[in-house]
């Protein structure tokens, strides 16, 4: 499988896993990713490359749920930015993030 580009401005794994948890399709997730890249002034990877990551993380998400491991997420800052750019309230954003990444401690102070 393809590795995440080392210069990626967005933690693709965290963003994709978050989108998967919100039942977004590959297409909607990519639109979200493109919007974030635009806000950050960065170039987006191709849809085909993104789709390969999306499929990889769908499988990872399924397997972690099935075996009870849970998901380890290193950096959710872009998930927060995604929520902001999509007009989600701070309260709803923290609620969704805590629900998606419940095995990780998310400090509400870091969210604001």
UniProtKB/TrEMBL annotation:
InterPro entries: Mos1_HTH
Taxonomic superkingdom: Eukaryota
Domain Mos1 transposase HTH, residue spans: 9-57, 75-109
Pfam families xref list: HTH_48
Protein name: Mos1 transposase HTH domain-containing protein
Organism: Caenorhabditis remanei
């Amino acid at each position: 499988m393809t590795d995440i580009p080392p210069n990626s401005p967005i933690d693709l794994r965290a963003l994709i896993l978050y989108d998967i948890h919100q039942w977004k399709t590959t297409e909607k997730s990519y639109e979200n990713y493109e919007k974030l890249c635009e806000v950050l002034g960065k170039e987006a990877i191709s849809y085909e490359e993104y789709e390969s990551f999306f499929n990889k993380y769908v499988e990872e998400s399924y397997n972690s749920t099935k075996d009870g491991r849970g998901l380890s997420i290193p950096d959710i800052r872009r998930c927060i930015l995604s929520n902001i750019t999509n007009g989600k309230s701070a309260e709803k954003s923290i609620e969704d993030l805590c629900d998606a990444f419940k095995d990780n401690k998310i400090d509400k102070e870091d969210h604001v």
